[in-house]
Design brief:
Elements (H helix, E strand, L loop, with lengths): L1 E5 L4 H12 L4 E5 L4 H10 L6 E4 L2 E4 L1 H11 L10 H32 L1 H6 L7 H9 L14 H18 L12 H10 L27 H14 L14 H4 L1
Parallel strand pairs: 1-2
Antiparallel strand pairs: 1-3, 3-4
Helix pairs in contact: 1-3, 1-8, 4-7, 4-8, 7-9, 8-9
């Protein structure tokens, strides 16, 4: 059984979940608790970052490395084209999604957290005590005014431009590269999940997003495309299995 060590609201973990869904692979989830849980993750994988996939005796870190591992060991359906040119395009677009798009999306989400108490509270780790979660959600938004300044006007405009270009790419074609689902589609869709939370995010996040992006009329088609990708792979919310620090296998 495959085991995914993750943060639930990480776009890179979402990318891996989309790949697993596309390949119809069963897996269990270990939700990593920031801090203590990352020490256990380090003992398992040699680093503290998620996602980490355990496949039998193999431990694979990094969403791109996990994607290549799954493609090699579970090749059906294939998410990488056979044609070298198309394969290169898919991998380049995946890398762009994981870097430039991810950076812009993170900054925009920080702004949203500064003004939306529901998003702020829901993105806290699952292990956060309920009183602390309620306290942070109830804090006045003006205390988070500095968060909204993290992303400058030019950075926000670049993100908007990138998203509009993506919207144009998918306006007449169901996939970014070629005529079938690829890793590029899943990498981009995963990053979009933090700008307008999909149904798989569950309550209370589903349908909420970054103001000025999630509700921008020029981007409606892009998010419809994202939702169509989710529907195609059957991405559904899964229960989270919290690691038990007293159990060696779970603590790893």
């Amino acid at each position: 059984m495959l085991e995914l060590h993750q943060f639930r609201h990480s776009a890179f973990c979402e990318k891996v979940r989309l790949i697993l869904a596309a390949k119809r692979l069963d897996y269990t989830v270990v939700e990593v608790t920031p801090g203590f849980g990352q020490l256990a993750l380090f003992r398992l994988s040699g680093q503290r970052q998620v996602p980490v996939l355990v496949d039998g005796t193999e431990v694979i870190a990094d969403s791109s490395a996990i994607a290549l591992h799954l493609e090699a060991h579970y090749p059906t359906p294939s998410l990488l084209p056979v044609d070298p040119r198309a394969r290169a395009q898919v991998l380049l677009l995946e890398d762009w999604a994981d870097t430039a798009l991810a950076a812009g999306g993170r900054m925009a989400l920080l702004q949203a957290m500064g003004t939306d108490s529901v998003v702020r509270g829901a993105l806290l780790p699952d292990a956060t005590p309920a009183p602390l979660r309620s306290l942070l959600g109830a804090l006045p938004t003006d205390l988070f005014a500095g968060v909204g300044e993290v992303m400058g006007r030019s950075e926000r405009q670049q993100l908007q431009t990138n998203l509009e270009q993506l919207a144009a790419l998918v306006s007449r074609h169901p996939y970014l590269i070629g005529d079938q689902l690829s890793l590029a589609d899943l990498a981009v869709a995963a990053q979009l999940s933090l700008l307008l939370f999909p149904a798989s995010a569950g309550a209370p996040l589903a349908g909420r997003g970054v103001a000025g992006v999630a509700d921008h009329p020029l981007l409606e088609g892009l998010f419809r495309w994202r939702d169509a990708i989710y529907a195609e792979v059957g991405r559904q919310p899964e229960p989270v299995n919290s690691p038990d620090p007293q159990t060696p296998a779970a603590a790893s």
